[in-house]
Design goal:
Blueprint: H1 10-16, H2 42-50, H3 64-77, E1 86-90, H4 93-104, E2 110-114, H5 119-128, E3 135-139, H6 144-153, E4 157-163, H7 175-184, E5 188-192, H8 197-200, E6 210-214, E7 228-232, H9 235-249, H10 255-265, H11 268-287, E8 292-296, H12 306-312, E9 319-324, H13 327-337, E10 342-343, E11 353-355, H14 367-372, E12 379-383, H15 389-399
Helix pairs in contact: 1-3, 3-10, 4-9, 6-7
The chain binds pyridoxal-5'-phosphate.
Length: 401
């Protein structure tokens, strides 16, 4: 595409963004399955290693297929913002989050974060980072006064880490207010944008310093590859410290997964529109269902975070959860009766996925601990897919008669 041609739509950018014309004129980006890159001369090798000349050296450090994915996501996260960010593709969302933490924090530093977080991130900050002298303050960051009091009372807090909407509760925190608060105290702010995707929400709009994704989910969209990305607005810091930590930890992506991710992202806008439309209708159906005690979906005016979601998201998203009145056994029976929707724990794929935390992911977690996070025995988490709505509803109807 001619770079001087201004794209006016997000969907066009999702198709064309980041693409570099292949020197062999392949239409699609090739899978550069090469661990190393050759130098014309020893002097060129010297220039590449010293950074004097741009170019690939070794695929743990960078690779053309991976670079195209990085550029596409960076373009989508900043569409319409007049801002430059740099992305570094990783082997997984957790690898990207690990690079972020180890590049920005040192012993004695603290992270402040909301209590609802993806389980892996929660374990990283509560079980692994303390071994390196980095600890976490976990609070309900929807309470801005409390967040402010905590930050003021502890000068060791160095970073605010947000995830909105959060896994698994779908709770939302206010990016604008929290970012302002954090910056007024000199904190770094990071946001996990996995559930929203840059189509629904752009954290860089609120001067967030770092955005992370598990690209495994909606960005890939087809459940075909694990991946992650760390994006940052301090280009110099991204090119120096973050690049160094990424290269040395070895959590690099690979060209095949990057290729799948690039193909998936081209349809992100179309998929998200259909996901979101279906999710709203499924939420309305569940609200009226006699076997359902409660529906957690920020698109419903009854949800406590409805206004926050509305303020910062284009649509409320594809994820929801609901509580069956019949508790644990009700949840197990419901899951076993599903005929089209899929029983699995991930999210972000074209097909509708359901999980029952009490019998699956949180089976061994003590009841009081689960309930603290709103995970009741009859809770079902749902990634509403892009199938025809009536088929999703028909399956739910026959599973929860
Ligand atoms: C919100 C969120 N962030 C991060 C991760 C970790 O991503 P990955 O599994 O790609 O390492 C997940 C995984 O489910 C997630 O849901």
């Amino acid at each position: 595409m001619d770079k001087s041609f201004p794209l006016t739509g997000w969907g066009s950018l999702a198709v064309h963004g980041g693409h570099i014309q292949d020197p062999m004129y392949a239409h699609q980006v090739p899978i550069y399955a090469s661990s190393t890159y050759v130098f014309d001369t020893a002097e060129q090798g010297m220039r590449r290693f010293s950074g004097e000349e741009e170019g690939y050296i070794y695929s743990r450090w960078g690779n053309p297929t991976m670079h195209e994915a990085e550029e596409k996501i960076a373009a989508l996260e900043t569409f319409g913002l007049n801002k430059e960010v740099k992305g570094i593709l990783h082997a997984s969302g957790m690898a990207a989050i690990s690079t972020l933490m180890l590049a920005t924090l040192k012993p004695g530093d603290k992270i402040i974060t909301h209590f609802s977080l993806y389980g892996g991130t929660d374990e990283l900050v509560t079980k692994i980072l303390p071994g390196f002298g980095i600890t976490a303050i976990i609070a309900d960051l929807r309470d801005l006064q409390k967040a402010s009091d905590l930050i003021q009372s502890d000068p060791a807090i160095r970073m605010m880490y947000l995830e909105t909407p959060a896994n698994p509760t779908i709770q939302c925190v206010d990016l604008d207010e929290l970012s302002k608060l954090a910056r007024s105290h000199g904190l770094l702010v990071a946001c996990d944008n996995t559930f929203a995707t840059p189509f629904l929400q752009q954290p860089f709009r609120y001067s967030i310093d770092f955005v992370v994704h598990s690209t495994t989910k909606f960005l890939n969209g087809h459940g075909t590859a694990i991946g992650g990305i760390l994006l940052g607005s301090d280009i110099d810091f991204m090119k120096t410290k973050c690049t160094k930590v990424h290269r040395l930890l070895g959590g690099n992506a690979n060209p095949f997964d990057a290729f799948l991710l690039i193909q998936g992202m081209k349809t992100l806008e179309l998929r998200m529109e259909r996901h979101c439309h279906n999710a709203m209708e499924v939420a309305k159906f569940l609200v009226a269902h006699p076997a359902v005690a409660k529906v957690n979906y920020t698109g419903l005016a009854s949800h406590s975070d409805h206004h926050t979601a509305k303020k910062q998201m284009r649509h409320p998203g594809a994820m929801l959860s609901f509580e069956l009145k019949e508790g644990l056994q009700g949840g197990i029976d419901f899951m076993n009766k599903l005929k089209m929707c899929v029983r699995t724990v991930s999210l972000g794929t074209c097909d509708t996925l359901l999980s029952h935390p009490a019998s699956m992911t949180h089976y061994s977690v003590p009841k009081e601990e689960k309930e603290k996070y709103g995970i009741t025995d009859g809770l079902i988490r749902m990634n509403v897919g892009i199938e025809n709505l009536q088929d999703i509803i028909n399956d739910l109807k026959q599973a929860a008669p």
